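Quick review question:
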């Protein structure tokens, strides 16, 4: 896989967080990442909204669990909407994407040309959802990484020691 020249370092960090689980398994495979890159190249740039992301990716290579991991890791934060809105919209977005793919396969579009996925305005509306408190977001990120409280405490202690070595202070 060749790196995307427009890929920022923080995205690479978020992708690696989504890629690895605490049990040694992976959520996001190289094939899934390739499928996302291919979809971006096909549309000529960044995804404009979450529904477009779900419609353009190859659902055979990027499944629901992968998308959920990407959302929770923050890898889709550049797409408008909060993480909690994307999680809440995920089932609807995937259902729309499947319907659109089925219509494309049959050669069907909307009556007035284009596709049958609804207008851009309609599809780009994310549900109003409760904003996650910081603790909730951290809990979900910790679960994604497969970290238990013992591992988090050990990591925090290591960070405190490293920060103390570098600047004489503590986190």
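Suggested answer, residue by residue:
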């Amino acid at each position: 896989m060749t790196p995307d020249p427009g890929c920022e370092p923080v995205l690479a960090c978020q992708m690696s967080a989504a890629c690895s689980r605490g049990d040694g398994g992976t959520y996001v495979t190289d094939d899934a990442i390739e499928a996302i890159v291919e979809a971006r190249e096909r549309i000529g740039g960044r995804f404009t909204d979450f529904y477009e992301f779900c419609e353009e990716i190859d659902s055979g290579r990027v499944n629901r669990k992968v998308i959920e991991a990407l959302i929770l890791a923050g890898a889709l934060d550049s797409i408008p909407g909060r993480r909690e809105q994307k999680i809440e919209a995920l089932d609807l977005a995937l259902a729309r994407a499947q319907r659109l793919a089925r219509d494309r396969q049959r050669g069907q579009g909307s009556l007035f040309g284009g596709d049958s996925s609804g207008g851009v305005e309609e599809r780009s509306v994310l549900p109003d959802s409760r904003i996650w408190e910081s603790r909730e977001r951290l809990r979900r990120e910790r679960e994604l990484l497969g970290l238990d409280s013992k591992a988090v405490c050990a990591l925090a202690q290591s960070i405190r020691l490293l920060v103390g070595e570098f600047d004489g202070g503590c986190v």
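Why it works: The helical segments are 9-19, 30-43, 50-56, 64-73, 83-106, 120-123, 134-145, 149-167. Residues 1-14, 111-117, 167-171 have pLDDT under 50 and may be disordered.
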